[in-house]
Amino acid sequence: MNLLNRFQPRGGVHPAGRKDLSADRPIRALPLPERLFVPLQQHVGAAATPVVAVGDQVLKGQLIAAGQGTISAPVHAPTSGRVVALGDYAAPHPSGLPVPTLTLESDGEDRWSDAAIPADPFALAPDEIARRVGAAGIVGLGGAAFPSAVKLNISRKSGVDTLIINGGECEPYLTCDDRLMREQAEGIVAGIRLIHHAVGTQRALVGIEDNKPEAIAAMRAAALGTDIQVVAVPAMYPMGWDKQLTRALIGKEVPAGGRSADIGVLVHNVATAYAVHQAVALGRPLVSRIVTVSGGAVKTPCNLEVPIGTPAQDLFDYCGGFTAPPARLVMGGPMMGHELPATHIPVVKGTSGVLALTHAEIGRPEPAPCIRCSTCVRACPVGLLPLEMATRIRAADLDAAIGLGLKDCIACGSCSYVCPAHIPLVHYFNYAKGELSARERAKLKQEATKKLADDRSARMERIAREREEAAARRRAAKEAAEAAKKAAEVTA
Amino acid sequence: MSQLAHSPHAHAPVSVGKVMATVMLALVPATVFGFWLYGWPAIFLWTVCVAAALLGEAATMQLQGRPARPALLDGSALLTAWLLALSLPPWAPWWIGAIGSLFAVVVTKQVFGGLGQNVFNPAMAARVMLLISFPVEMTLWTAPAPITGLHAPGFAEAWRITFGGGAWDAMTSASLLGHVKTEFTRGVDLLSSLPGYYVPHDSVWGQRAGSLGETSALLLLFGGLYLIARRIVTWHAPVAMLLGVAVPALIANTLAPAHYLGPLPHLLSGGIVLGAFFIATDPVTSPNTATGQFIFGLGCGLLTWIIRTWGGYPEGVAFAVMLMNATTPMIDLYVKPRIYGRNRKGQSLPAAPSKKEA
Amino acid sequence: MLIAVFSLTTLGLVLGLLLGYASRRLAVEGNALVEEIQAILPGSQCGQCGFPGCAGAAQALADGNAPITLCPPGGREVVSALSAKLGIEVNLADVAETMPMTAEVREELCIGCTRCYKVCPTDAIMGAAKHIHAVFREACTACGKCVEACPTEALALHPAPITLQSWYWHKPEERMAA
């Protein structure tokens, strides 16, 4: 790709990368944990329903919960063992609320279930590839966790012509995609070709931030002789936002409220491409992922291949524990990840990292008044006015905030990161979005209950009316009978 | 219910206090030069301004029942006082500085809701108030008398000049713009009034009568460039303001050199450079977007030139800035960044036809 | 003197006539407004506002005899809709966001008397005689009628449980006193 086709990204920030902590650590497999806590919902859409019962023996890769409805994903056993519980367990979610979770006790053998391996995956029909991707429980591994098969099908139907593979990995600390590209470039490229084949795209671009030269080199070497182009894009946060990467690579913007498919683009993460290869060519469902364990409080930061459902504590333990009591544990990257309330919370499909950060790293000074310096305006990759939106939200004027583009906000945190007054801007936006959807739900519920109330009063009226009519009829019948009786007496 | 911390879990090492400190650092060279040029009275006046501003800030915070310490530590009151001091005649009496500073901090800033809430630039609002209320004291300029030179007042004499009240008689002078305006009203045109009075070299270095800090264009320019390099401000407002003065001055001067000053004396005199880099870039009272800031700066420059050329006052930066401050909300309403995936009107971009449909 | 009295009287008369004409001509159809307000209200006729049902409350609102914050089950959503409809400014931040509530049955106390589901305005209680009743949360408006009807105090209003679907970030605290 030449320079002419590269487009200047907008906004963005350059946080301290801190990737050097773990970038040179090869991926190692985490020793099998004793217990795995596998949530039934690790994806966008409907939760999966369990197909095994407590006490069942399962093999690695065996289906344990099936997807429900059009947007959902199945869940597979991350190792062989016995199902010991099916109940609520703390979720990897900022609320920390419990969610339905399958608990699996490992038998230590890690035995795979049998899988049908196609002789030539490229001979499979496109629909069959999408079906296998769906059956393997693959979701977007960049963090969004949207079921991949759904994306493949939509893209195929809407005639997408460009496949973009996201190797941005712009979050500080995280190096899992970087390591995967360096070590498994062949597998990623095979996965890209499978997606390419399944969707029928005409070109495939891999966008990698220019601060990962080794990954770029490895991917270029692996892509040699294919029609996949590996493009270095400028390192900045949030380059890994799929729409930012799309603009950087092909100069087109996804319409607001629309999908990438609207401009003929399909975006997948590099790790997702790798998982597609594993699933389609090797018949292996998504039961593990690469997780970066890092942060100033971690003794030896690592990149680990972790079975889904492993508690975060096991990861920290493997990395030598903490050098100091961490000020904050984070799941995901520091910009968009969420705080872990406890270390027993499991790694899920969308977990790219677990971080133990020190006070110096998080820096959480007290908020001060906004001086309208508009640094946040310059930092916003979407082109919003964070300071104005936050002012409206503080004054509980959510409609005005929507008018300023609240719904276009991607919650990337760039504004909060750069704010010299330390105003929790993105927190305001997420609160407002939550409040708006709560109101929407309340409105729907009110409409529904109102209908119920109307139905009920209509029913009550009808019953009363019917009762009255029945009484009237009885009266009339009685009177008629009496009249008849009288008439009979008269005639008699 | 959840008290977990919201992302991001990292913050840039910046703070309001650091921003203010950087701006003050950028003002140091021009200020020190001003102290040297105008001697002890200037130092006294600066000190009075700063002390009054801090007292005013602390007192108003106390009245509102808010902690005074963080407000004093963020440096905003100090910076306001500093900028005001730089815009005053250096030998002005102490009460000019005190009243100006208190007005800037209490009336222009705190009454409007404190830091970040004021509509007008406090320093400029205070200067305008002083200029209208005390025209005599505000237009008595001193010829430079370097502190190391022979004519400089000693410490005791300086004390009398600043705090004595009306004890000054020597060495008054007129600023370049004042001189031009005065000569104009006498019917003397530029071709006769300017020679011998305007020496560009002096203006660059600041060796002439004027406000405490607005005389050395060069040192102010260095300070401004430092701020741009540190990314505290962007180039938009300053460059636009300089252009807003220079372009009309150039056109007018080319057409009628006898009646209109050329761009160079305009840029090098009065508060243009100070205004462009330190006043028009005030974050609170200027627009949010780069385009908005450019329009704002252009307006400041153009209005300054109009006031200087046709207005009753020889200098117009403060008035121009205040007028443009009033337009900031309107500029912000109309000039917004384009949102990703939307056109300038905020409508969603059309979906591109893909290959199979096309 | 006379002229002044006369002119002021004339002025008063003319303006008075004008006002009278305007009030006739531009009169608002009272019923229409009441109906529109009633459409905004939840319609569960719970009576928590102190008026006889939602129609009574709508009438009071239209007459200006009730604050637009009168409806506890409606929450902020109803307040802001009423504010827009009636043109009454209200600072939503001052409207305490009441926790969404639902009625819940304590199973050990329920005797299956069916009194509660007979009074439920939204048919949100399920059950049959001599069987323990249950509340269908999605349909419950927390009007409290069942609580009053229950002879064994088995019914009580509780905050609606927070789920992953209903959870969202709290509003950032205002650390700086404004």
Supply the key terms:
heterotrimer; A: alpha/beta; six-stranded mixed β-sheet; four-stranded antiparallel β-sheet; 14 helices; 17% strand; disordered N terminus; B: 358 residues; Ammonium transporter fold; 1% strand; globular; disordered C terminus
Descriptive notes:
The complex is a heterotrimer of chains A (492), B (358) and C (178). Among the domains of chain A are: 3-32 and 123-291, Rossmann fold (3-Layer(aba) Sandwich); 384-434, no CATH class. Chain A contains 14 helices and 17 strands. Chain A is an alpha/beta fold and 492 residues long. The longest helix of chain A has 67 residues, at 425-491. Chain B has 358 residues and is mainly alpha-helical. Chain B has helices at 16-38, 40-64, 68-73, 76-86, 94-109, 122-133, 135-138, 155-164, 176-185, 190-193, 200-205, 217-229, 236-255, 263-268, 272-279, 290-310, 317-334; strands at 141-142, 172-173. In chain B, α2 runs antiparallel to α4 (76-86), α2 crosses α8 and α13 runs parallel beside α16. Chain B starts with 15 loop residues before the first helix and ends in a 24-residue tail after the last helix. By secondary structure, chain C is mostly helical. Among the domains of chain C are: 30-94, 3-methyladenine DNA Glycosylase II, Chain A, domain 3 (Orthogonal Bundle), CATH 1.10.15.40; 101-159, Alpha-Beta Plaits (2-Layer Sandwich). In chain C, α2 (30-40) packs across α3. Chains in contact: A-B, A-C, B-C. Chains A and B meet through β16, α10, α13 and α14 of A and α1 of B.
Based on the coordinates given, report the CATH architecture of chain B: Orthogonal Bundle
CATH superfamily of the domain at 30-94 in chain C: Electron transport complex subunit B, putative Fe-S cluster
Spell the H/E element sequence of chain C: HHHHEHEEHE
The neighbouring-strand order within the major sheet of chain B is: 1-2
**Portion of residues within helices of chain C:** 25-40%
Q: Could you give the order of the helices and strands of chain B?
A: HHHHHHHEHEHHHHHHHHH
